[in-house]
TrEMBL record:
Organism: Sporichthya brevicatena
PANTHER family: UDP-GALACTOPYRANOSE MUTASE
Name this polypeptide is given: NAD(P)/FAD-dependent oxidoreductase
Pfam families for this protein: Amino_oxidase
Domain annotation Amine oxidase: ranges: 8-412
Length: 468
């Protein structure tokens, strides 16, 4: 049994069904794909926020996806823009362009920080301290500090240092900007180019969701039974050698199987397991929070809005973090030429005013953002709003012991294994979720689940670094 039909659940279903296992997938939503799904707005396929398949995808996984999607899985050059200190710079970044765009005061601060770098050490294990020490206070203040408070709703000093290590090690636009800016003075003189930044990405012709749809089709063809609109509300682990784990869906249906793979949010698993998790585990679980997101889609009449795939907005006094234009992520004859659609990402808390704001208020936020960042105005033909409650796990300072308590409990429940982005409370990409699924299925043996192999796999997951 697999709980959740996002990338993790579907990849597990396909891999398990291919080896002749009987597989039932229970998915709460009426569609497959979770956060990686696509749907139509204004007759154009869109994603739940900007999604790309990163070149860091393991070759074997990429080969499997190519096998499923064929030529529809395109390799595309990145063509974004990043807003730094009030100017737009192209991404992938060019050092000379970047250095020219920046105010002299900022460049001087970066140069000063570069000189004092060896002397800086984080005084506490917080996002703010780790990044101030590593990148310097100037870059931290210009890029990462405002971005953190938008994305996670917390000041950098309230975010655990682990967040900086997980998210900022990759070649994200922010990281690349920071690297290049640190060298900006030298670059101005030499004109040398940047390297190592994510220059390409993979993307399906019919939207990112084509990946999960192909996985679902392949799993079904291999014999998996995918049941949509089937929210699980109770999980009964194996209680003895002769018993089998059981799950129940909201309509009262029970399903029994040899093993449960759960990809639902880890705190949700703790809340619905019977017998219940110990009180201290539930208390720890209650302290872990998720960031939500409002996605505002605006259909723009009159062809493409811009030629860029995404516009990254780390600061600028707007709650918007990114605006993407899905039709620019792919080459597709299916996409209309007389209109386009924008996807605007607004992170928020699941219980705040932004999450429940009406369409007019959200459209106002978008219009204001375009005006204050010099983006072209829109000819709005239609607005569609989506609200997603569990988007980013929040690594509040000191979250580690609470997660450890919950994870230790979860590892101890018999016949149930949790993985996936929300299942492990990890800010992971799709290729990570797919890799976890493969490892989980590979740990199933004829005599039971190989906990040793899974423990080794979990160690590998600790190296996952989030890409933007
Ligand atoms: C804005 C944004 C941008 C992103 N950009 C990228 C990107 O560029 N590249 C990339 O690789 N990744 C990106 N990601 C991450 C990517 O979406 C996730 O890594 C991936 O979807 C995780 O897959 P998953 O299966 O672990 O979880 P999910 O996709 O969350 O799937 C979990 C599934 O479980 C279901 N579920 C929950 N509770 C229950 C229940 N009680 N019963 C039954 N079903 C339940 C949910 O409905 C969902 O379908 C992005 C994410 C966001 C939010």
């Amino acid at each position: 049994m697999i709980l959740g039909a996002g990338p993790a659940g579907l990849a597990a279903a396909w891999r398990a069904a291919r080896t002749g296992r009987s597989v039932v997938v229970l998915e709460a939503a009426p569609y497959v794909g979770g956060m990686a799904a696509s749907f139509e707005v204004g007759g154009i396929r869109v994603d739940a926020g900007s999604h790309r398949l990163h070149p860091a995808t393991a070759p074997a996984l990429l080969a499997d996806l190519r096998g499923l999607l064929g030529d529809d899985l395109q390799t595309r050059p990145r063509n974004g823009r990043l807003r730094v200190a009030g100017s737009w710079v192209g991404f992938p970044l060019k050092p000379v362009e970047l250095a020219k765009a920046l105010p002299p005061g900022l460049l001087a601060g970066i140069a000063r920080d570069a000189l004092t770098g060896p002397l800086r050490k984080p005084r506490q294990d917080t996002y703010a301290e780790v990044l101030r020490a590593g990148l310097g206070p100037t870059l931290y203040g210009a890029l990462y500090e405002p971005y953190a408070s938008k994305l996670w709703g917390l000041d950098g000093s309230e975010i655990d240092g682990e967040q900086a290590r997980r998210r900022v090690t990759a070649d994200t636009p922010w990281k690349v900007a920071a690297k290049i800016l640190s060298r900006a003075r030298r670059s101005r003189a030499t004109g040398e180019g940047g390297s190592g930044q994510g220059q390409i990405f993979h993307y399906p012709r019919r939207g990112f969701g084509q990946i999960v749809e192909a996985l679902a089709d392949a799993a079904t063809a291999a014999g998996a039974d995918i049941r949509l609109s089937s929210a699980v509300d109770r999980v009964v682990p194996r209680s003895g050698l002769d018993s089998a784990p059981q799950v129940r869906t909201a309509d009262g249906t029970t399903v029994t199987g040899r093993h449960v793979f759960s990809t639902v949010p880890l705190p949700r698993l703790a809340a619905m397991t019977d017998p219940p998790a110990p009180a201290e585990v539930l208390a720890a679980s209650g302290s872990l929070t998720f960031r939500a997101m409002v996605l505002v889609y605006l259909v723009h009449g009159g062809g493409r809005w811009t030629s860029f795939d995404a516009h990254y907005l780390p600061a600028d006094g707007t709650p918007v973090t990114r605006i993407s234009e899905p039709t620019n992520y792919r080459e597709s004859a299916d996409d209309p030429t007389d209109r386009s659609v924008l996807c605007v990402e607004i992170p928020c808390a699941p219980d705040d005013a932004t999450f429940s704001a009406d369409e007019a208020t959200l459209t106002g936020i978008v219009t204001d953002t375009l005006a204050r960042t010099g983006l072209p105005p829109l000819n709005v033909q239609e607005v569609v709003v989506r609200r997603v409650k569990h988007v980013y796990p929040v690594y509040t300072r000191g979250y580690g012991p609470a997660l450890e308590a919950l994870d230790t409990w979860a590892r101890g429940i018999s016949g149930v294994t949790t993985f996936g982005r929300l299942g492990l409370f990890a800010h992971d990409n799709t290729h990570h979720a797919l890799a976890m699924a493969y490892d989980a299925v590979d740990a199933l043996t004829p005599v039971g689940f190989d906990h040793g192999a899974w423990a080794m796999a979990r160690l590998r997951f600790a190296d996952h670094v989030v890409e933007d």
